[in-house]
Amino acid sequence: MRVKLLSGALGAEVSGINLKDSSKENWEVVNSLMLEHKVLFFRDQDITCEEHINLAKKFGPLEKHVYVKSLKGYPEIIRIIKGANEKHQWGETWHTDVSYNPKPTKVIILRSRKIPPVGGDTMFSNMEIAYETLDEEVKNKIEGKKAIHSSLGAAAFVDKYTEMEGNGNLDEYSNDHPIVRTHPETKKKILYVNSMYTKKIVDMDKKESDKILKKIFDHQERLDFTCRFKWTENAVAIWDNRSTQHQGLTDFFPGRGLGHERIMDRIAIQGDNPK
């Protein structure tokens, strides 16, 4: 096994592990590496949908997306498609997946099926480092506070993309979570807000809340907290959704990535109540 670090902040590309092997021993190695590096990347993993599901189940119960229609025959999988002539793709803003749920996603396993020759890389950011380096004045203001995470607009958001299909659910989901949560396994503190779903700090004037959240969001997007992965077909990313944020880049332009499809299969593992 070889582990190649992708940046000083997080991320590692792992070779010498076969993800078709969903044994407890193999999973323990993968899980340990994920907790250490936050996000792992594996190339040349031509796994079937069944093998994808078997691997994901090792991390815990699987969840269905509340808004996106699942892949036919595989309710645990959603297929994320950027059409050949679309300039944008799903998940193009910094976020933590479904943080509006009472038990937000624990782990994501994303598998590439079709990739443009260039464009559409995914970036990840380390929210443990984001908390550690946060201004002390801001830390004091958010200590013990919770923030409201809402899915408002997320159902219609799916309709922006020509190849993505909603499942018909238009309900809004909203839950309060600690702004600083403790990772249930590593016990590290995590800055747990994101610009896509976090709307307001509980029991705080909206103007003051907006000001503090803007400072935090700007801080979270520092490039030195990030790593970037260039996809190839049959690559797999496994990341800790509790301690990271991510975004899919939309650098599709004529003569480059535009004119090519990007197709990914996503499985999410259910998390716990953030504390």
CATH architecture: 4-Layer Sandwich
Structural class: alpha+beta
What fraction of residues sit in β-strands?
25-35%
- Mean of residue pLDDT? 95
Q: What is the class in the CATH system?
A: Alpha Beta
The backbone outline, from C-alpha atoms, is globular
CATH topology: Double-stranded beta-helix
How would you explain this protein's 3D organization?
The chain is α+β, with helices and mostly antiparallel strands. The chain has one domain: Clavaminate synthase-like (Double-stranded beta-helix). Helices cover 20% and strands 27% of the residues. The strands form 4 sheets. Strands 1, 2, 3, 4, 5, 6, 14 and 16 form an 8-stranded mixed sheet that branches. The chain has a 3-stranded antiparallel sheet with strand order 13-7-15. Strands 9-8-12 form a 3-stranded antiparallel sheet. Strand 2 (12-15), helix 1 and strand 3 (39-42) form a beta-alpha-beta unit. The longest helix is centred in the C-terminal third of the chain and has 15 residues, at 206-220.
